[in-house]
Amino acid sequence: MPEWKREIRRRLSKSRLSPTRENAVIEELSQYLDDCYDELLASGVSESEAYRRTLAELSGSETLQRELRRAERQVPQEPIAPGTNRRKNMIADLWQDLRYGARMLRKAPVFTLIAVMTLALGIGANTAVFSVINAALLQPYSHIDTDRWVFLSEKNEAKGLRSAAVSIPNFLDWRRQNQSFSEMVFWSQLNFNLSGPGAGEPERVRLTIVTENLFSALHLVPAAGRFVSPEDYKGNGRNAILSYGLWRRRFGGDPNLPGRTITLNLRSFTVLGVAPPGFSFPVQSQTDIWVPNFWHDIEKDTYRSGRGYAAAAMLKPGVSLSAAQADMDVIAGRLASQYPEDKGFGVQLEPMRESVAGGFRTPLLILIGALGFVLLLACVNIANLQLVRMEARRKELAVRSALGASARRLLSQTATESLMLVAVAGVLGICLAPIGVKLLLWLVPPAQIPWLKVKTDGVVLLVSFGATALTALLAGLAPAFKAARFDVISALGAARATGAGLSRRLRVAFVIAQLSLAVLPLSAAALLVNSFARLSRVDPGFQVDHRLTLSYFAPLLRYKDAAAVAQLAERMGEELRRVPGIKAAGGVHYLPFSPAVGWGQAVSRERPQGNPADLPHVSYTVATTGYLEALGISLKAGRLFSPADSAASVPVVIINEALAKRHFPDEDPIGKPLWIGHAQLLPTAAPRTIIGVVGDILLNRLDSSPNAAAWVPISQQDGGELVWRNLYLIAHTTSEPQAALAAVRKQIATIDAELALGDIATMEERLGDSLWRQRLTASVLSAFSLIALAIAALGVFGVTSYLVSQRTHEIGVRVALGALPGDIFRLALKEGIVSTLIGIALGVAGSLALTRFLGNLLHGVSAKDPFTLAAVAILLALVALAACGVPARRATKVDPLIALRGE
Hints:
Blueprint: H1 5-11, H2 19-42, H3 47-59, H4 61-74, H5 87-107, H6 109-138, E1 149-156, E2 161-164, H7 168-177, E3 181-195, E4 203-211, H8 214-217, E5 224-225, E6 239-242, H9 244-251, E7 261-264, E8 267-274, E9 289-293, E10 310-315, H10 321-338, E11 346-351, H11 352-357, H12 361-392, H13 394-402, H14 407-442, H15 458-484, H16 488-492, H17 502-536, E12 547-553, H18 562-577, E13 582-588, E14 599-604, E15 617-623, H19 627-631, E16 635-638, E17 652-656, H20 657-663, E18 673-677, E19 688-694, E20 709-713, E21 726-733, H21 741-751, E22 758-762, H22 763-770, H23 772-806, H24 808-816, H25 821-850, H26 866-891, H27 896-902
Parallel strand pairs: 4-9, 6-8, 15-20, 17-19
Antiparallel strand pairs: 1-2, 1-10, 1-11, 3-4, 3-7, 3-10, 5-8, 6-9, 7-8, 12-21, 12-22, 13-21, 14-15, 14-18, 16-19, 17-20, 18-19
């Protein structure tokens, strides 16, 4: 490399600058000429030509004059008097630091790229997760003040019911007697068939029958038309409010639609209006149509024990949740003493904000915690790499200091470089955040979060800016501290530094911190992956492969009673069994792992006496012939349903092993009577004969225990039971289930062309969707832990490489004196082994303290599982040793002649 300083000093001789100012100009120009010379060589220019062009660059008067002007502004010789404006000097200093920092980062492209991408991933991932947290937990719904609204449910601790559905009579009594709520709403959700002129092909839509005060209670403004008034119920009362999405999708946003009629389940409904964009109620599910109703009109026709509805209420101003709960406890106690069927039942209040987030809260909080560790790890890594770079630039910094640069100026320069890195990474991270949001939401079934609308608002940008600023502080603190305490004498001394003292201890501490921080997300990810793998292997008690499922609704206008509904269901199964490629098919009201999974009914092995509310309850549903065969549930004793089990035959029931063990311990239940149904009807109802016992199955969660369950032929529904018109079909196919869908649709159209099919999915998809929380946390945390592992390995590699390079002279001497390659390898490897072991030990100790918070998400594995923690420790140790091994192997190839000559 040519020596430029002599030529620059010669040309400055006539300028008569002070020594301090002249040295500053010489240092800046020599660095500038070095960069020009290197760029020309890199472009293929010969050395002589590069030298000539570089001198020509210096000869340009503008270059020299610019540096002279900069030096005049930069190096004030006298202190600034109080009140003097230093803004121009500060701006000049900042501009110089930015220019110089950009050149230094450009000269180290590998370091710059690694640093920017590492920090960008950390900032972008944190921004993405916080965007979802902001939408899900902090601002879950824009149309409802979720801090004032609560969900109401019934509970019976003695029966293990903590959140049971609500009955119509109880809700109406709550609304009349409470002193805590300004509004109370009540609803039930169904799937209806939308058909008729203007609606296109028949479609299954989600319909919510809701109390008439819903829209006025929420103070909504319709997008078109109007909402409900009492005048709308003087006729038949069949009115509808459309969702904004359905209105746009099916009716093209026709502003004249309000006042016209649509056909729901073959009945005409008048469209009153359209809900505002983005509105849905209940919040947890997507509703297409609301049908307002006055529930008190049907109070006399319902049972107090018929709990199958949902309720919510808005707290009055100044009323706390605890006060409202006490108020409802008094009302529940009064109703329990007044009505025998309410004995033991109370009321449970749950804040809507917490309920809306549901199972989304815990995974998100775990992810943001893990991301915090990853971002902190990235900051430690960048700070460590910056320290290594500073050691390589120690002579440059020493010269600057010797020429008069203050500790403040050196600190400012170092901090500016760190700030430039983080600023670029912050902008890139914010650009990457939308991709992260899409990846997060891709892992969650849309049906679980229909209410979630993620957007980048001021809060998200503020948090992103805060994360960027904090990252800049953490990543630049140690290098800036080092620059401020730079030792000029040792840097300019003849002896070569060996990395001893504070610098070495600081770098080793950073390596230990990196490894410790990497253990935490790795341990959490390993535990969650282990738990997810175990949960995926849980046997639900039935077969899931090659099973196609779908649902339909039998409209009242065409299928007027239970017999007609049962006849349609049985015919559906018969026709599907005739389709080529289908081995078995049947229908059921509640399908395992569907949105609704069971109806609690009272059960007794003897005719009930006394208060029916004391009877135990079991999961109960109606099914057709062929359903249990299509589901693949194992028959343990007796037989399954057959066409002979008709309305005219003896009432029968099939139970599972859990029910048999509970009510028929140590005896054969086949042929024995069982009373099952509505508790208030059982004392006068006829018993059912048990004809079969099947294996236990899981209904909606793979990490739960099987419930006692019973199945009744759909053809034997008695007049006191609800006529369940919403049914599921399941078909056992010989090929891929989706391949049979077209044939299934065609066959069902031959039965009733106006039946709309919905909720189409394979049984494997239903089980997979039930694991979305575990899959989300395991997948994302695994990705973050791999990033943490890579960052830790990079940090170990960088520090070990630097320490080995600092000992090149020593290694050359050892080789000259006869040291073997193995000796050199062990010597170099020793630099990283001790730090690795200490870091892993501290990380494992921290994991034992923190992974206990994962307890609710783990299945079949302890949060302190020693095998998982040992596997993580071994993996991290191997990666760290591999990172140490690369520079150690390079040390064995040092040529002693070159090493000693370089010294």
